[in-house]
Write a structure and sequence with these properties.
globular; 11 strands; BirA Bifunctional Protein, domain 2; three-stranded mixed beta sheet; alpha/beta; eight-stranded mixed beta sheet
């Protein structure tokens, strides 16, 4: 197997967003230079709302009660906090069917939908916004930033978030309460089960294999 297609899996625990951002930047530099293989960071953040360029261009900001930070990944407002899975793929996207940002986002969506399906959760895409939806609610946000076709930032899956925190955010064409978590939709699933399914399905949906876990 081509070593570049192996993925090092790193469980980081709870990490301040600013610290994770610096880590992503350094790993992205290393990946561009082929100093490391593709790397997937799996972590959580203390509560923060990241504000992407779409939100800034539309003049949309989170309520003052939310800590927030401007970021350079695609998309608008994204809530981070307890009860959420955060995955940052520091990947070099240069394989078949990875020739555009749209194709890469679609690959990630398909992977996450397959993971949810394996857990009897009917995930789907929606024309209103990229990410993954269950019914009429968005439970997964995706936003990447690329340099030389190597990504940082990534996706979030809302599993069992604090009541009304993610639901109270609105903007970028979505009403408040459109984004929610799986628990609020009646799906009681452990974060570990979702992560196990993601890693098991990785070869089938994004053509990569887990190298190790740290």
């Amino acid at each position: 197997m081509d070593e570049r297609r192996l993925v090092k899996i790193c469980y980081e625990g709870i990490v301040e967003y600013s610290d994770a951002l610096q880590q992503m930047k350094e790993l992205q530099r290393q990946r561009i230079n082929d100093e490391i293989v593709d790397t997937l960071l799996i972590l959580e953040h203390p509560e923060i709302v990241t504000v992407g360029p779409r939100a800034r261009n539309d003049g949309i900001a989170p309520p003052p009660s939310y800590p927030s930070l401007p970021v350079d990944r695609g998309g608008g407002l994204t809530w981070h906090g307890p009860g959420q899975i955060v995955c940052y793929p520091i990947f070099k996207w240069d394989m078949e069917n990875e020739d555009s940002v749209t194709a890469i986002i679609s690959k990630l969506e398909d992977w996450i939908i397959a993971c949810l399906t394996s857990l009897d959760i009917p995930g789907r895409k929606d024309s209103r916004m990229q990410g993954v939806w269950v019914g009429e609610h968005k439970i997964c946000s995706i936003g990447l930033s690329f340099l030389r076709w190597t990504s940082r930032h990534g996706f979030t899956i809302n599993v069992n978030t604090p009541t009304d925190r993610v639901e109270s955010l609105a903007g970028c064409g979505l009403e408040s309460a459109t984004t929610t978590c799986l628990a609020r939709l009646g799906y009681e699933v452990e974060k570990s089960a979702i992560l196990d399914s993601l890693l098991q399905l990785m070869p089938d949906w994004i053509d990569r294999n887990a190298l190790s876990t740290l």
